[in-house]
Structures are given as structure tokens and as C-alpha cells.
Amino acid sequence: MKYRYDYQTLAMTSQKTNTNVALKVAIVQSGYTQRAVARRAGMSELRLSQIVNLRIPATGDDRRALAKALRCSQASLFSSEEAVAS
Fold this sequence. Notes:
434 Repressor (Amino-terminal Domain), 7 helices, mainly alpha
């Protein structure tokens, strides 16, 4: 399934739905599905969904695993406020 979202569209959507925009954008830009990213990060699809939708905070291990799975820095995926929350 191809995603045709850009950062601006995701940012507008996230303001309404309380979503971690940077993480969602990284997932979409990676070309992987959210399920594939969850597998690569060694977590359940449900857990990743909860992190993306800010239902639960990402732990340090979650942040490291997602950064490795998406081949980017933790700072690019999570704001300092989210890092403090976990």
C-alpha cells in the first residue's frame, strides 16, 4: 500500500488526533508498513500504534529500537516533551 501523505498533511491531522507526527512521517518515508516497522523494532503492532497515537509513552528501549528500525536518530522521532514523559 502506497502512502501519499506529506509532512504538512500529517501535521494537520496530528493536531486533531494527537499523533506523534515525526514518528509517523518517518514510518511513511521508510516505505515500510507500520506492521513491518513494529517487527523490525521487536515490538507488537499494537504497542507501536499506541506509541504513534500517544496512548503510551515510548520507553528508552522503544525509542532505541524504533530509531534503529527506521535508521534515524531518536531525536528525530521524539520531541523532548515525549522523552521526559517516559
